Structures
1.
Amino acid sequence: MGEAPAFFEEDLQGDFSDGFDLKSKGLETATVVGDKIYVIGGTDDESTSTIDVRILYKSTGEWVIPTVLGTKPKLSKGHSAVLLNEDRILIVKGDSTPDDCVWSLEVDTKFVREHNNNFETEVVAWSRGVKGDVEKPIVISGPSGVGKGTLISELMKEFPSMFGFSVSHTTRGPRDKEKDGVHYHFTERSLMEKDIKDGKFLEFASVHGNLYGTSAEAVEVVADAGKRCILDIDVQGARSVRASPLEAVFIFICPPSFEELEKRLRARGTETEEQIQKRLRNAKAELEQGQSPGLFDHILVNDDLDTCYKNLKKLLCLDGSSGITTPKSLPKMFVLPLDNSISKIDQKILMNCGTAKIEKASQLMFVLDVSSLKGGAPGRTRGLNFYAIDPFADGLNGIRQLS
């Protein structure tokens, strides 16, 4: 629990208009969600470098400092806030770079509710807004020797600009010629354990005393580059990703028979009999789990590699019937002034903003269409759609799409 600054004790005595900012001073805003008031921002003395969050219960007058998941946005010289769909607050920062001006604070999403059970305090989660959208990541699982690595290699070879791999994290030290950020993100165990607790990892496992895992940020980095992320993970990892906020396509590759799988493993000639038996035991368990209802969206039988690869491409709409949508960043000219104001009408956010290059900037209004927003903490909120309205132009001539 904590105490409110003196100016907020005065400001929060008035009418509570659910969903929108209350009167605020300095660098803070107050947004009402039910019985809670979310006070968002820094302080007048700018003693902090990131935007903080506090919660005031209207019924009791008590203050709570919540557990904050995701990466906190950097403090700006002012911001506006508006409630979206009763589960998240949209933050528009002033005087910010194009890729840092729009953020989402999740306050009652599925992700937040699930993590409330892991902490003794309230939980909120930050998610950075990104213009545009990408195809869902692909999770490919299957037992060792089934050929999923070959299938993925063929995809990467034929469509090098469409697909990318996320870089996993590990607590083991780098081996000879391994580069941090290329082969793995090498990290300290205590830091990775904290990030796992904070919900930043989609899946993780302990192998020979070291932690390995896939972070949500690593997947989002691939999407930010305009590529569709492929995750090659085991069934248990796929189960963890399925339980995460990440929306993905889950594909299980299986052999035509267990006997054929054993034949392929032995034909490789790279393992001892003991290792083969261990892989076969694991494969049997994975084949059973792969049939679990609701885990995988598609099951492909790799009887013939060429046929299976064609079926995989058809499943991913790579046979000429679809394409990949490349995300677009906000234009470099887009800069919010310090005195930006914000309001919400249906699924449109209206902002009186300025730009660095458009003439008559003070007379332009920017509109953010939030109807297509999706995704969330601890990564990105995608699908931002901005356009400008010039009140001095007529009809459609007054609309300037920011793309």
2.
Amino acid sequence: MRSSLAPGIRLLRALPRDSWYRGLTLVLTFLFYTSFHLSRKPISIVKSELHTNCSSQGRRAPNGTNSSTWCDWAPFDKDNYKELFGALDNAFLVAYAIGMFISGIFGERLPLRYYLSAGMVLSGLFTALFGLAYFWEIHALWYFVLIQICNGLVQTTGWPSVVTCVGNWFGKGKRGLIMGIWNSHTSVGNILGSLIAGVWVSSAWGLSFIVPGIIVAIMGLVCFLFLVEYPEDVDCSPPLHHAASEEKDPDATPSADDGSCVCENAEGATVGPREPAEQPEAISFLGALRIPGVVEFSLCLLFAKLVSYTFLYWLPLYIVNVAHFGAKEAGDLSTLFDVGGILGGILAGLISDYTGGRATTCCVMLIVAAPMLFLYNRVGQSGIASSVAMLIVCGALVNGPYALITTAVSADLGTHECLKGNAKALSTVTAIIDGTGSVGAALGPLLAGLISPSGWNNVFYMLITADVLACLFLARVVYKEVKGWCGCYTRKRGSSVALTHAVVLDGK
């Protein structure tokens, strides 16, 4: 007698073919960008090992050796080590910011699978080369700076590619929640990068880079073998915003970024709405800037990402200096900020889907984040319990808006109604928004390196100021969202009154 089909297999067979591929795309792109961030995190963990108080480590200095710096790694053994660390961070982030504006243009004109795979393999190579300096006994600053620049450039292949792939597969329905969950790859990568780097940070710090580099390169191979860019490539149904039959509901509430815009093609010529039969052309850089909301969200992200990346690169060192933990303990504790980031990204996506107010959600979270940052600096290191709680709360409030803008907002704007279903604009819009944000990501760690010698309080004042500026740049979009909600309420109330009059006149 044959047994019945296993319940799990029956469930899998019941799932539509489209759902299989959508799920595969989500999982793969999640893993790809997790590996990118996994390779970025080790530098923040290793900083405290490259320059440390050797005597506090319980190590005995060789005869005739300076007891306070003999175990440091030159050239970071001098008093200007914070400035040198800032230069390393800045080398990566400036290269990333510059490359991002170019990357989106290439991403629209090259097969994304090849483009992303090559970027991941090269990123793995440069990450490993940084760690090989430990085994090759390299102490030249130019070597570390050059590796950071090259790595920053090749990592720009990642974000426009993965967002474009997800945008190609998913419509606008619950995009905020889906991408809020999906965007946890940033925090998951940071957590894994911290834990992996922490294993070898005090014994052989070079492996803290080599192991993540190998992981990124392997994921690049997986990308080449399995990534599907478009639903049409595997005979799946395209999402709603790609469908030729999509029509705008005349009674629907206008979104905050509704408005007419004229888009331009790659040659800069003005083009009108496209017929479904026409082959869409890649949008120009200026054409993408003219999409309503792109400039406002880009400038907001500049300051939001400034705060987030300052924590990414300097939080472990801050914990070491203020709370006096060891390098591994500080790295492990810093992962709680990313745990909060996961919760914040999901919460921001859920709220923005429910309310329809992407900008308002970001603005409220940024406003609340400012006093929380002040409190963390004042009382966050008074005990382990307060430190854990404040790190999670601050991580949620800081990374929530950052996650929402770089995912759901970018995808919304890249498939704006004025584009009439032209998905080729998505990569350029994503690159513009994240590229502008990356300018802030470069400025944050640089300013932290310059300001921290005068005291960590000043660093937090800088972060709070950046939060406030991020809110201000969203003021116009928030106003339009609130105005849209009020207009919707007025129309509904007017319809109700009209219905009441009709009932009375009808004698019922």
3.
Amino acid sequence: MTNVNKLNLEQEFKIALYEGKINQLNNNNSKIYLKNILKKMMIKDNVIKYCIKNVIR
């Protein structure tokens, strides 16, 4: 379960794309918030995928 909290290459790319869009926003707090939310959502997806692969057998 060591790799569960890491983003894969596709997810890192999505983060980079979103960062480009987020950087166009004016409010710095909004930028920080959105980046953190996106990363947490992707980590959540990884945990769910791990559970489906390894717990439900």
